[in-house]
Specification:
The chain has helices at 10-21, 33-40, 51-57, 94-103, 123-131, 150-155, 170-180, 182-186, 196-227, 231-239, 260-273, 281-294, 296-305, 331-341, 354-363, 376-379, 393-396, 400-404, 421-426, and strands at 2-6, 25-29, 62-65, 76-79, 112-115, 137-140, 160-164, 191-195, 312-316, 345-349, 370-373, 385-388, 411-414, 430-432. With 437 residues, the chain is of the alpha/beta class. The longest helix has 32 residues, at 196-227. The structure holds uridine-5'-diphosphate-xylopyranose. Residues 144-147, 207, 210, 214, 248-250, 252, 254-257, 259-260, 320-321 line the site of uridine-5'-diphosphate-xylopyranose (UDX).
Length: 437
């Protein structure tokens, strides 16, 4: 099939390459010339395991352009542009609206427009009416990919969600999307059919639930800290209950990234608009707990070291999660900035995110106090504390005995509860976790 993917950021670029992998002929369209140039030359503009290989392997069936008129050759058009957070917390729909406006002149009767972006409930209904005069049909097919697993999540999703329009175009829309995803459906992937509003809500509800799970366990970490309990053991014990499950119960410095924080705020803003704000009041609390946990590292460092001014602190991790170079709303980067603002000299390191992080540190006017590199072992030389802020596997594999001889003071603050506490203690370190000691 001939497919266009509008928006070649994280979601769109991976989706475009994955659709080519399924055997379709795909054109990726983006307004960003540099991104298009990079993708055209087979180089991923972001770090994502397996994505470069997919780009190169499918280069015969996959091309990228800034010219929207190329969409005319395709009959299925995926909308995968970003919906960033506006200053009032709501989702900024500028890119979605621009993409639809630019696409409509190139649509033909019978075409299918498939929304993938995370949008406020009610958007699909509005866009459907806008697209209808062209003779094309719109449906909503939210995406649940995780950074670091984006290729896997796109090609082997847990489920496919189809939000269908009312009326007689629904059946043909469903058949076309079934053809697009035929290979995935053939493996038995569940396909759930619903109306627009439900499909839009599935995405924000899923992210809200995940955020709630994380803030729940972080609230338990706060209780553990004042009672001497161990939140990891607590999570293991409640996680054995199948109704609860162990995943997304890792306490630490909380969630960040381009999705969970903005999606819960956008959902709250939309519920307010709809007059049902009180239904989502709890999500404001989820957000507050999450942001509060970022401050915990500073509290623990002050508790152990006293005045932070002049102290030298290594921060391992800058990306919002491992296997990613994404620093959007990264708790790790927030911690680097707050340690620096408290007067510490910060030596920050991340295997993938050092370049974007250095730019952010520079823009924040903190480059005098923060050095950034990918050399996490070197960063520990002569420091008063090591802070682990992103749970990269490489950090977990560091030999604490080797670190004991290079640091000036043996203090490790494990912001992600990912280290072997006993091994670090055995090497002479004071170990401070989040909700566990
Ligand atoms: C998320 C959703 O998982 C995905 O389905 C959706 O499509 C986009 O948003 P992503 O942003 O890639 O994906 O990150 P995710 O793996 O969900 O982690 C989000 C944040 O939560 C990270 O900062 C991570 O470190 C943190 N986290 C996760 C915890 O603090 N504890 C946990 O137990 C799990």
């Amino acid at each position: 099939m001939k497919i266009s993917v509008i928006g070649c950021g994280y979601l769109g670029a991976v989706h475009a390459a994955s659709m080519a992998e399924l055997g379709h002929e795909v054109i990726g369209i983006d307004v960003d010339q540099a991104k298009v140039a990079s993708l055209s030359s087979g180089v991923a503009p972001f770090h994502e395991p397996g994505f470069d290989d997919l780009l190169v392997k499918n280069s015969q069936r996959l091309s990228f352009t800034t010219d929207m008129s190329h969409a005319v050759n395709a009959s299925v058009h995926f909308i995968a542009v970003g919906t960033p957070q506006s200053s009032d917390g709501s989702a900024d729909m500028t890119y979605v609206n621009q993409a639809i406006d630019a696409l409509i002149p190139h649509l033909s009767p019978g075409d299918l427009v498939v929304g993938k972006s995370t949008v406020p409930v009610g958007t699909a209904q509005r866009l459907s009416a806008q697209v209808a005069p062209s003779g094309a049909t719109l449906m909503w097919n939210p995406e649940f990919l995780r950074e670091g697993f984006a290729v896997e999540d796109t090609l082997s999703p847990d489920r496919l969600v189809y939000g269908l329009p009312e009326g007689d175009t629904a059946d043909s829309a469903q058949e076309i999307l079934d053809e697009v995803y035929a290979t995935i459906l053939a493996t038995g992937t569940p396909r759930l059919i619903m109306n627009f509003a439900t499909a839009e809500l599935v995405k924000v509800a899923a992210n809200s639930f995940l955020a709630t799970k994380i803030s729940f366990i972080n609230a338990m970490a706060e209780i553990s800290e004042v009672t001497g309990a161990n939140v990891t053991q607590l999570a293991d014990a409640i996680g054995h209950d199948n109704r609860i499950g162990r995943r997304f119960l890792n306490a630490g410095i909380g969630f960040g990234g381009g999705c969970l924080p903005k999606d819960i705020r956008g959902f709250v803003a939309r519920a307010d608009e709809l007059g049902v704000g009180s239904s989502l009041d709890f999500l404001k609390n989820i957000d507050e707990i999450n942001l509060r946990r970022r401050g915990r590292v500073l509290d623990v460092a002050t508790d152990e070291l006293g005045e932070l001014a002049g102290k030298r602190i290594a921060v391992w991790g800058l990306a919002f999660k491992p296997d990613s170079d994404d620093i959007r709303d990264s708790p790790a980067l927030d911690i680097v900035e707050s340690l620096a603002r408290a007067g510490a000299q910060v030596v920050a390191a991340d295997p993938q995110a050092s370049i974007p992080a250095a730019k952010r540190i520079d823009a924040a006017g903190l480059s005098g106090q923060v050095s950034v590199s990918d050399d996490y072992l070197g960063a520990a030389a002569g420091v008063d504390a090591i802070v682990v802020a992103t749970e990269w596997k490489a950090f977990q594999e560091v030999d604490p005995k080797a670190m004991a001889s290079v640091v000036a003071n043996k203090l490790v603050i494990d912001g992600r509860n990912c280290l072997d506490a006993d091994a670090w203690k055995a090497a002479g370190f004071t170990y401070r976790g989040m909700g566990r000691s």
